[in-house]
Write a structure and sequence with these properties.
alpha/beta, 11% strand, Helicase, Ruva Protein, domain 3, binds zinc ion, 5-stranded parallel β-sheet, binds adenosine-5'-diphosphate, 13 strands, 5-stranded mixed β-sheet, 22 helices, extended, 4 domains, Rossmann fold, 55% helix
Length: 591
C-alpha cells in the first residue's frame, strides 16, 4: 500500500515536471529574424557561436553573446563544412528539438510505465487478493478504534452471552487460575447484515485489544498450501501483538461440510482448515486470543470445526424484532437532525424483516434525501421515500414510459393483494399499497406485515400464501385467463416456498401428515418427490380457487381500490380501509 502511494506520487511529480518543461519552452523568447546576408556578415565577423541545421528551410543559430537568431537555410552542398572551418559549432538538431525529444521520450516512458504498472498490479492483486489483505493487517490491525457495545443496539442476549469472553481476554490468568477453560473459538451465525462483524469488533473494542479481520473466501481458490500458509501468517501476526481478536467472516468458505461422494474432498480447503485447527489447538489458555467466525448458516459447517476446544460456542444473531429495530433506528439517528414529525417507533413497525444493515441503509438514504432538499432536518417524508428506495431500488423517474394498460394491470394486481389481506387476515398490517414502479422490475407492491411473533400458526402461513396468490387472481378476474401476465412470478415463488415449508418441515400437509421430509431424506428415502409435488399442486390450486371466489364476490371493492390506486398511486392503510368500508356501505345501501 505504501509503495503504491509513493509510486503514484512519483508519477504525478514526473508529469508535472514535464508539463512545466513544455511551458518553459513555450515561453522562451522568439529568436530574432535576420537576412541571409546579415548572417554571412556575422559569420565573417566571427560573432556566431553555433548553428543548428535541423529544419529544411530555416537555420537557427546562437550568437556568442547568447542571443538567438533565425535565417533562411540556403540548402547548399558543403555549407556545414564551410561553417565548421570558420570555427562555428554545427548541430544537426536544434536545442529545442533535442529538449522536445527528451521530453516526449520521458512522457512516453511515463505513460507506458504507468499502464504497465496498472495492469501488472491488477493481475498480481487477482492472484493474491488474500495475501494483500494479510499484509494490510500487518500494517496495522483495526481495533482500539473504539467500537464498543454502545454501538450495538438490540440483540442483548447476544451481548450477554459474549460478555464473559471479554473478561477472559482481559484477564486470562484469572480463568487459568481456576482451571476454567473459555472458548477459543466462537461462531456467530445468522442472516447477513445482522451485526456479526460489528459484535466481533465490539468485543475487541471492549477488551481493548487489536482486531484482525479476514474473510474465509480469501483462503480458497489459491494454490495448494498457500491458504494454510496464510492462516499461519495471520496467527503469527496476532500472537506478536499479544492479546487479540481474530475475526473470520464467511468461515463456511474454508470449513464447509464435506459432502461424501460429491466433490471427493478438496485438498486445498482441507489443508487450510487443518492449519486453522492446528493453530487454535496451539493456543495456551493464558494467551488471551479469541477467534470469532461468522457464517449465515451453522448447519453447513464442517463438524470438525465445531468440536470442543475449537469453535465450541455458537451464538445465533437473528433479525431484530420491532423493539430491537426501534433501538437500532435510534442509534443510527444519533447525531442526525430529526424533524418532530418522525416517529421512529412507527418506522420500526413498518420494517419487519429488516436487518440492522438495512435499517442503517434506510436512515442513510433518508439523510441523503434531506440533504438534497437542504431543509435542515430529516422529515417523515424522507424516511418514507427512503423506505421504497431501500426495498425496491430507486423510484423510476420517468413514469410516462409505462403505458396505461400496465398501470391499470398493476393497480388491479396490487389491489388484489391488499384486499385479500384485509379480508382473510385483518390482523396483518398493510402499511401501504403502491403502483409506483421500481427499477428492480416489480410493478409495485403491497406489503402485508404479520405481527411479530416467535411461532407462526398454520393459519398465518395459509394466509400468506393466499395473499401472494391474490395478485394473479385479480388479474385473471379482470382480464381473463389468457391475459394474465408474468408479473406474478415472485408471488408464486413465495407462495410455493411457504407451502413447501409447511408440508416438508412443519407437518402441516394434509396427505403427508407429520412426516419430516428432511428426516426421510436423511434416511435415504428419496422417492417422495412426485407425491410431494402432487400434494403441493392440489393445495395451492384450492387456495387459488378460494382467493378467486372471494375476489369475485367483492369485485366492486376490488375495482374501487384499483381505481383509487390509479388516481393516487399510493394508498396508506387508513385510506385503503376507508375505501373498502365506503364501498361496502354503498353496496349494502343498494341491496
Ligand atoms: P454482518 O457481519 O452480520 O453481515 P455487519 O456487522 O457487517 O453485519 O453489519 C453491517 C452494519 O449494519 C453495521 O456496520 C451497522 O452499521 C449496522 N448494524 C447491524 N446490526 C446492528 C445492530 N444490532 N446495532 C447497530 N447497528 C447495526
Ligand atoms: Zn404481486
Amino acid at each position: 500500500m505504501h509503495n503504491k502511494k509513493r509510486l503514484i506520487y512519483g508519477l504525478g511529480i514526473g508529469l508535472l515536471l514535464i508539463i512545466a518543461y513544455f511551458v518553459f519552452l513555450y515561453l522562451q523568447p522568439d529568436p530574432q529574424r535576420i537576412s541571409y546576408n546579415e548572417f554571412l556578415q556575422a559569420v565573417d565577423e566571427e560573432k556566431i557561436q553555433r548553428v543548428y541545421l535541423q529544419e529544411r528551410d530555416m537555420i537557427k543559430g546562437l550568437y556568442k553573446d547568447g542571443t538567438e537568431f533565425i535565417t533562411d537555410n540556403p540548402r547548399r552542398e558543403g555549407f556545414k563544412e564551410e561553417l565548421l572551418r570558420k570555427n562555428i559549432e554545427v548541430d544537426e538538431k536544434s536545442r529545442e528539438a533535442r529538449l522536445m525529444d527528451a521530453g516526449s521520450f520521458m512522457l512516453t516512458i511515463l505513460i507506458f510505465g504507468g499502464i504497465f504498472y496498472f495492469f501488472s498490479n491488477k493481475s498480481i492483486k487477482q492472484a493474491q487478493s488474500g495475501m494483500g489483505k494479510l499484509s494490510s493487517i500487518a500494517a496495522g490491525p483495526e481495533g482500539k478504534a473504539g467500537v464498543t457495545f454502545d454501538d450495538v443496539a438490540g440483540i442483548d442476549e447476544v451481548k450477554d452471552s459474549i460478555r464473559d469472553v471479554i473478561d477472559f481476554i482481559k484477564n486470562p490468568e484469572k480463568y487459568a487460575r481456576y482451571g476454567a477453560r473459555l472458548p477459543r473459538g466462537i461462531i456467530l451465525y445468522g442472516p447477513p447484515g445482522t451485526g456479526k462483524t460489528l459484535i466481533a469488533k465490539a468485543v475487541a473494542g471492549e477488551a481493548g485489544v487489536p482486531f484482525y479481520a479476514v474473510s474465509g473466501s480469501d483462503f480458497v481458490q489459491v494454490y495448494v498450501g498457500v491458504g494454510a500458509g496464510r492462516i499461519r501468517d495471520l496467527f503469527r501476526k496476532a500472537r506478536e501483538s499479544g492479546k487479540s481478536v481474530i475475526f473470520i467472516d464467511e468461515i463456511d468458505a474454508l470449513g464447509k461440510k464435506r459432502d461424501a461422494g460429491f466433490e471427493g474432498g478438496n485438498d486445498e480447503r482441507d489443508q487450510t482448515l487443518n492449519a486453522l485447527l492446528a493453530e487454535m489447538s496451539g493456543f495456551k489458555d493464558s494467551e488471551g486470543i479469541v477467534v470469532i467466525g461468522a457464517t449465515n448458516r451453522l448447519d453447513v459447517l464442517d463438524p470438525a470445526l465445531l468440536r470442543p476446544g475449537r469453535f465450541d460456542r455458537h451464538i445465533e444473531v437473528g433479525l431484530p424484532d420491532v423493539k430491537e429495530r426501534y433501538e437500532i433506528l435510534k442509534l443510527q439517528c444519533r447525531g442526525k437532525p430529526l424533524a418532530d414529525d418522525v416517529d421512529l417507533y412507527r418506522v420500526a413497525q413498518q420494517t419487519v424483516y429488516f436487518s440492522g444493515a438495512k435499517l442503517e441503509n434506510l436512515i442513510n438514504e433518508a439523510a441523503i434525501l434531506a440533504a438534497k432538499r437542504n431543509s435542515g432536518s430529516i422529515e417523515a417524508g424522507d424516511i418514507d421515500r427512503a423506505f421504497y428506495i431501500v426495498i425496491a431500488g430507486l423510484e423510476k423517474k420517468d413514469r410516462s414510459a409505462i403505458n396505461d394498460f400496465d398501470r391499470e394491470l398493476t393497480a388491479y394486481h396490487e389491489a388484489g393483494h391488499a384486499l385479500i389481506t384485509r379480508l382473510v387476515a385483518p390482523e396483518n398490517r398493510v402499511s401501504r399499497v403502491t403502483i409506483i414502479p421500481s427499477t428492480k422490475g416489480a410493478g409495485g407492491f403491497s406489503l402485508s406485515i404479520p405481527p411479530d411473533r416467535m411461532y407462526y400458526k398454520k393459519r398465518d402461513m395459509e394466509n400468506s400464501i393466499k395473499i401472494a396468490l391474490a395478485g394473479r387472481a385479480a388479474e385473471e378476474i379482470i382480464y381473463g385467463e389468457d391475459s394474465v401476465t408474468t408479473g406474478a412470478s415472485n408471488d408464486l415463488e413465495r407462495a410455493t416456498g411457504i407451502l413447501m415449508d409447511m408440508i416438508t418441515r412443519f407437518g402441516m400437509g394434509e396427505k403427508s401428515g407429520l412426516l419430516s421430509y428432511k428426516a426421510l431424506f436423511n434416511n435415504g428415502i428419496r422417492h417422495v418427490e412426485d407425491e410431494l409435488i402432487r400434494e403441493a399442486r392440489d393445495v395451492i390450486h384450492s387456495y387459488y380457487t378460494e382467493v378467486k371466489k372471494i375476489l369475485m364476490q367483492n369485485k366492486p371493492v376490488l375495482e374501487a381500490v384499483a381505481t383509487a390506486l390509479l388516481e393516487r398511486e399510493t394508498l396508506k392503510e387508513h385510506e385503503l380501509d376507508d375505501i373498502i368500508n365506503q364501498c361496502k356501505e354503498r353496496l349494502r345501501g343498494t341491496a
